[in-house]
Please model this.
Amino acid sequence: MYELTIRTSFAAAHSLRDYNGPCARLHGHTWQVEVVLNGRQLDGYSMLVDFRELKKKTKRIIEELDHQNLNTLEPFAHSGGGNPTAENLSKYLFERLKSEFSGLQREIKIALVRVCESPEACAAYWEED
Model:
């Protein structure tokens, strides 16, 4: 099994709805994102996925979030969509990236997406087999 990891970041604001604490007020983070892929078969270049391709796909999604108030974006714009927490952001990014890699001839699996709102506080999302 092969594993590939990239790291990137973006800046965005959010507030937690119906939360009793200072995070209920609008505040911002430089969100750190880690994307981990795995698979059994390499391509003709002996790569699981070209780092450049993974970075491009991730950047396209991140650009939609960068320098935004996450509470105003789908899927976080209403209480039914959930708060824009690190947990929900990691799941959102996971699902978006999973759809980006679903059409490949080789099986590439998004193993995990980790989102950190600070160096001391991270959340991750993955799917069990």
